[in-house]
């Protein structure tokens, strides 16, 4: 199954754009204004609610910041690990070494076939059988293992998008495969890979809310804790949703700016 | 320098090279011509093993390309190659294009590599472009940089795969001039080209290929005035 899907996908050069928030670009006026309305609208709404109805809104806002920190920790930890895993997996997927290639392909196939929520449960309890790890570490590993597989496909597509002539030119100068990859292919692939990695980051940020089910006190979990004590479910989830929205919009903006920088400086 | 014996290359059911044998002597300039699909590029690319052959042997400077004990990168260090599409590294400046393999493969110091690079840029007339990126150069300039990049490795043999085919007509001359200078310096060269003027002027030997075989071989004098083979006569009448 793994080899089969590989040959069909090898022809496809397009890098999948995940379900990350739309990243605004200067050229895209519509999205740009939509981003502004959403971002400042969310901040405005939160401020208004906290000001006019401190109970419960201000109380919620005071209660969840540790959760935001945990959400960031999980997201950052997972994205760094996922990029490393993705690089290894992507190189494995294009490797001529059958063992390396087979292992990478198998990993991708398995991970893509299991829902993230199930993976988080599974890795949490599987790890728990072998070693005692804090829930947050287990959450980071679970997210990274999942996103590493998707990242691997992004890396592979990025490498394959570099023209064959680049590799041939490097080889004809006497470079070996490793030198060619390090000095010629990867530096060019990074520019192709960066936008989809940005999208993966945003998607991961949102998906990190799933880790609240395994005793990780992230933003969503802190919200749930507050709501179950005060019975203000609607109000709490309103605040949680707005905070997620503000964070993702903020990061998608930053990533958009970074991308523009990269495409200007060649 | 090159001893290719009875090489066969098959794509599916198509014989791109059909028992081709070719020797190139030290200092010799061999120009390979023929209609497209005749196997001339495949032959050239097999000489540094960018193309795998299915049968036959190729020796380059005494090293057997298909002996498992041969380190292919060692062979490629000695064999420069210039491509139709230049293939400069777009993320590196002209100077870095010339120094990369020198430092990574030849293990030269950055200073030595840059010194060598500047000498070669001088030779191809592009010293002023050392800090430029390939995207800011014309096609002719890019190809001259590509030639300099290969020469920076101090190769014993240079392969040219249709080096002027992707160029605008007004830029062909500047690239051919660089190649002619190189020929005068005594470089061993194998050139696949459609530039008959270049073949006539520079070649010690012209090889005409058709359908994966060498069908005519001789001095430019002989080839352009009195070819033996019908296919070669037809080809010449079409292009001249």
How is this structure best described in words?
The complex is a heterodimer of chains A (266) and B (240). Chain A has 266 residues and is mostly helical. Chain A is built from eleven helices and no strands. In chain A, helix 8 runs antiparallel to helix 9. Chain B has 240 residues and is an alpha/beta fold. Helix content of chain B is 38%, strand content 25%. Chain B has nine helices and ten strands. In chain B, helix 3 packs across helix 4 and helix 4 packs across helix 5. In chain B, 48% of the residues are buried.
The secondary-structure class of chain B comes to alpha/beta
Measured by DSSP, the beta-strand proportion of chain A falls in under 5%
Mean pLDDT across every amino acid position of chain B:
93
Shape of chain A: flat
Radius of gyration of chain A over alpha carbons?
Answer: 21 Å
Give the class of chain A from helix and strand content and strand pairing: mainly alpha
- Count helical runs of chain A: 11
Major sheet size, sense and barrel closure of chain A = none
| Major protein interface | A-B, 18 and 28 residues
Structure at a glance:
The complex is a heterodimer of chains A (266) and B (240). Chain A has 266 residues and is an all-alpha fold. Helices cover 80% and strands 0% of the residues of chain A.
Helix and strand topology:
The complex is a heterodimer of chains A (266) and B (240).
Chain A: H1 2-10, H2 29-52, H3 54-63, H4 65-94, H5 98-112, H6 116-130, H7 135-160, H8 164-172, H9 177-207, H10 219-230, H11 233-264
Helix pairs in contact in A: 2-3, 2-11, 4-5, 4-7, 4-9, 4-10, 5-7, 6-7, 7-9, 8-9, 9-11, 10-11
Chain B: E1 2-11, E2 14-24, E3 29-33, H1 40-46, E4 55-60, E5 63-64, H2 72-78, E6 79-82, H3 94-104, H4 110-123, H5 139-151, E7 157-161, H6 169-184, E8 188-192, H7 196-202, E9 205-210, E10 213-218, H8 220-225, H9 230-239
Parallel strand pairs in B: 3-8, 3-9, 6-7, 7-8
Antiparallel strand pairs in B: 1-2, 1-4, 4-5, 9-10
């Amino acid at each position: 199954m793994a080899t089969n899907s590989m040959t069909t996908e090898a022809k496809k050069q397009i890098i999948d754009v995940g379900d990350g928030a739309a990243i605004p670009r200067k050229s895209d006026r519509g999205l740009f204004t939509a981003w502004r309305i959403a971002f400042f609208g969310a901040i405005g709404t939160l401020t208004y609610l906290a000001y006019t109805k401190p109970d419960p809104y201000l109380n919620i806002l005071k209660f969840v910041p540790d959760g935001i920190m945990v959400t960031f920790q999980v997201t950052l930890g997972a994205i760094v690990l996922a990029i490393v895993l993705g690089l290894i997996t992507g190189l494995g997927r294009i490797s001529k070494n059958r063992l390396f290639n087979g292992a990478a392909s198998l990993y991708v196939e398995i991970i893509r076939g299991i829902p993230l929520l199930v993976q988080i449960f599974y890795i949490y309890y599987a790890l728990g059988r072998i070693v005692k790890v804090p829930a947050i570490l287990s959450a980071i590993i679970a997210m990274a293992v999942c996103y590493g597989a998707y990242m691997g496909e992004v890396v592979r597509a990025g490498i394959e998008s570099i023209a064959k002539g680049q590799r041939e030119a490097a080889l004809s100068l006497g470079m070996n495969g490793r030198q060619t990859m390090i000095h010629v292919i990867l530096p060019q692939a990074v520019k192709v890979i960066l936008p989809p990695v940005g999208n993966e980051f945003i998607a991961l940020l949102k998906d990190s809310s799933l880790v609240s089910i395994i005793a990780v006190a992230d933003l969503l979990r802190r919200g749930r804790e507050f709501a179950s004590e005060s019975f203000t479910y609607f109000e709490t989830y309103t605040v949680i949703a707005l905070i997620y929205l503000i964070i993702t919009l903020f990061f998608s903006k930053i990533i958009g700016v970074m991308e523009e920088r990269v495409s200007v400086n060649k | 320098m090159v001893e290719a014996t009875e090489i066969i290359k098959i794509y599916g059911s198509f014989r791109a090279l059909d028992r081709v044998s070719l020797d190139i002597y030290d200092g010799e300039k061999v120009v390979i011509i023929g209609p497209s699909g005749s196997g001339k590029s495949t032959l050239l690319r097999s000489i540094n093993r960018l193309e795998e052959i299915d049968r036959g042997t190729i020796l380059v400077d005494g090293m057997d390309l298909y002996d498992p004990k041969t380190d292919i990168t060692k062979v490629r260090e000695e064999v420069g190659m210039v491509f139709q599409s230049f293939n400069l590294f777009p993320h590196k400046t002209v100077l870095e294009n010339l120094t990369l393999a020198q430092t990574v493969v030849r293990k030269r110091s950055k200073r030595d590599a840059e010194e060598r690079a500047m000498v070669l840029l001088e030779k191809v007339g592009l010293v002023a472009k050392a800090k430029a990126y390939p995207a800011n150069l014309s096609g002719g300039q890019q190809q001259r940089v590509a030639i300099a990049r290969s020469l920076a490795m101090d190769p014993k043999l240079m392969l040219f795969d249709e080096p002027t085919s992707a160029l605008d007509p007004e830029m062909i001359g500047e690239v051919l001039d660089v190649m002619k200078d190189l020929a005068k310096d005594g470089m061993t060269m194998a050139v696949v080209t459609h530039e008959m003027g270049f073949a006539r002027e520079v070649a010690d030997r012209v090889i005409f290929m058709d359908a994966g075989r060498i069908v005519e071989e001789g001095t430019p004098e002989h080839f352009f005035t009195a070819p033996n083979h019908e296919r070669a006569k037809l080809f010449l009448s079409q292009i001249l």
